[in-house]
Backbone:
């Protein structure tokens, strides 16, 4: 008898949690589970990668609306009201969209769908949540101790880093609650990264003499691209020649682009926008920089490690774990000053890069795809 599982996520846009979920689903056996994937918005680059044996359901269809143009407001308002209605009266969602199906497991693939899963009218199902972020530092929600406590309504709380695990364990009141917290590294496909890095890219000229810092991620305030550009300007003004390449798109894209022009660094800083395959840019760049204000377990850092890049990263959740406390890359203070000092160090001291390169040469990350997929399956099978 196949276990019936409902998985919920906002969309399948180009974000870390979306990529991780897609990689996980691609590596599941098709004969063991019956999976319904419910999206708030049926959109995103990973739609086409979901195996065809998984059933899609959605609340709305179409691309994410990131602007407030007058012509977009009616559709945007309709989506908000419609989704709020289904959240307030979940029995309507389960009756009319999910056709009254019953599930063995209901799985929130991101923390933002916590209440949607916990308020499910299906009281007999087991509930799981996957936490990808340091909840103390998210820009959309102030997660107090009281808010964190609400996650203990789940039967299992899957966390992706030691720091997040510690935060949840600090809130534990019983041994049973402690047993619900399980740390599982994100399932990431090393071979796919290596293979895609070999493909050609023709959107950026790496042949100039100045060293290039590449940064890859969804363009949200969380990622700190504004800080990166300000530091870039400061270093240029001090005579440190280099270029910046930002790969990614997101609702803050136009704001960051405008800042780039205001700082008069359009000739040395490039915003490439979204690309299906960022790995050739990783590979060709001299340095990888993570300028994030907060993270959970930054997937891009794993990709940079696999491609053996010299890394400069702010000291956010997951970074010390991934970089072996600074053995595999330069960890800097989570501030503009920290980013400045780190970039300046690697620009002025080639020996730093050489030492990291030697360490990365024979390093095999413990974030193993097969192990992660197996552990999540074990949780499903035991519940």
Residues:
């Amino acid at each position: 008898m196949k276990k019936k599982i409902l998985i919920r996520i906002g969309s399948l846009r180009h974000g870390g949690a979306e990529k991780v979920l897609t990689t996980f689903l691609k590596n599941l056996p098709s004969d063991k589970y019956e999976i319904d994937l419910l999206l708030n918005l049926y959109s995103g680059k990973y739609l086409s990668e979901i195996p065809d044996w998984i059933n899609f359901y959605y609340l709305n269809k179409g691309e994410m609306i990131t602007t407030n143009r007058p012509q977009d407001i009616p559709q945007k308002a309709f989506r908000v009201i419609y989704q709020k209605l289904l959240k307030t009266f979940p029995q309507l969602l389960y009756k009319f969209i999910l056709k009254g199906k019953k599930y063995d497991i209901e799985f929130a693939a991101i923390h933002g769908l916590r209440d949607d899963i916990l308020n499910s009218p299906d009281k007999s199902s087991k509930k799981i949540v996957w936490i990808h972020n340091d909840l103390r530092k998210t820009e959309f929600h102030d997660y107090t101790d009281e808010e964190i406590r609400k996650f203990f309504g789940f039967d299992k709380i899957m966390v992706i880093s030691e720091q997040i695990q510690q935060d949840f364990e600090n809130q534990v009141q019983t041994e049973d609650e402690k047993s619900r917290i399980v740390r599982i590294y994100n399932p990431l496909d090393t071979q796919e990264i290596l293979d895609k890095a070999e493909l050609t890219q023709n959107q950026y000229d790496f042949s100039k003499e100045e060293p290039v810092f590449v940064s890859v991620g969804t363009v949200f305030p969380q990622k700190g691209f504004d800080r990166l550009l300000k530091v870039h300007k400061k270093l240029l003004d001090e005579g440190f020649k280099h270029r910046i390449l930002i790969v990614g798109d997101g609702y803050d894209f136009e704001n960051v682009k405008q800042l780039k022009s205001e700082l008069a660094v359009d000739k040395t800083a490039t915003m490439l926008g979204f690309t299906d395959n960022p790995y050739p840019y990783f590979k060709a760049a001299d340095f990888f920089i993570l300028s994030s204000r907060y993270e959970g377990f930054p997937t891009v850092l794993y990709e940079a490690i696999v491609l053996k890049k010299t890394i400069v990263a702010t000291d956010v959740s997951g970074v010390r774990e991934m970089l072996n406390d600074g053995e595999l890359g330069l960890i800097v203070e989570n501030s503009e000053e920290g980013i400045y000092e780190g970039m300046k160090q690697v620009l002025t001291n080639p020996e730093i890069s050489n030492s990291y390169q030697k360490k990365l040469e024979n390093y095999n990350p413990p974030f193993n795809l097969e192990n992660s997929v197996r552990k999540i399956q074990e949780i499903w099978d035991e519940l």
Observations:
- The chain has two domains: 3-188+367-382, 191-361.
- The chain has 16 helices and 13 strands.
- Residues 8 and 38 are 5 Å apart (CA to CA).
- The longest strand covers residues 33-42.
